[in-house]
Amino acid sequence: MKIRPLEKDKHYHIYNREINGITIFKNDENKRYFLRLMQKHIAENVGVLAYCLMNNHFHFVIQVKEDEKLVSQSFSNLFNAYAKAFNKQEDRTGTLFERPFKRKLIEDENYLRNVIVYAHTNPERHDAIGDFRNFECSSYAIFLSKNKKYPLKIEINEVLLLFDNLENMDYVHGDSLGKQQTNLDLSGF
After folding, report:
1. CA distance 62 to 43
2. Which positions fall inside the Transposase IS200-like domain (predicted)?
3. Coil/strand/helix, residue 121
């Protein structure tokens, strides 16, 4: 399989899941730790527009700010650092995430909005919670000022500009759940 390079100044949907049915985030502290590692390894090289950490997979919407090799290495460092800590915690060895991590180039603004909505509403779509707005480990909670536990810098102003304002963003997110918005290509996921 040919891996698409992460081109500077482009937006991507980054997502991945566990291997062999392993729960990769056993608790809230695991999720906080992953986001701290994300801040440490990735934040200088990408702008994060949205994220959502589920128990067995995650979604990030990013804009690449640096050279592809630097960004790819940063993601590798993130995944390896988390897997090492998780394996120690769980007294296990081996790979934790599918390789390579999935990446989809976002080529237009409408698709970018749809991917952000998809990431934020993922917990409700997977029946992890009744209302995605109450899911703490999503960047949506940052927009609602409900997220104090999960530290990761988000490009708030850029996202709000995509939706015009917070009220419209909330409307679009809520409206998407009434529609079968599955036009996102998540091949192999």
Report:
1. 10
2. 7-122
3. helix
Contact 62, 11 (CB under 8 A): yes
Tell me whether residue 113 is in a domain: yes
Nearest to 137 by CA among 24, 11, 18: 24
Total number of domains in the chain = 1
Q: Tokens 């963003």 sit at which residue?
A: 169
Assess contact for 48 and 116: CB atoms under 8 A: no
Q: Say if 116 falls within a structural domain.
A: yes
Q: How does pLDDT run across 111-165, given as a tens digit for each residue? A: 999 999 999 999 998 888 888 888 888 999 888 775 556 567 889 899 999 999 9
Asked if residues 103 and 71 have their Cβ atoms less than 8 Å apart, the reply is: no
Kind plus residue range of the DSSP H or E element containing 15 = strand 11-17
Domain assignment of residue 97, given as a range: 11-178
Rounded to an integer, what distance in angstroms lies between the CA atom of residue 104 and that of residue 107?
Answer: 9
User: Exposed e or buried b for every residue in 130-139, given b needs 16+ CB within 10 A?
Assistant: eebbebbbbb
Instruction: Establish if 3 belongs to a structural domain.
Output: no
Q: What is the pLDDT of residues 19-36, one digit of tens each?
A: 888 899 999 999 999 999
CATH assignment at residue 53: 3.30.70.1290
Pick from 139, 124, 115, 111: nearest CA to 189: 115
Q: Return the DSSP state at 185.
A: -
CB neighbours (10 Å) of residue 118?
23
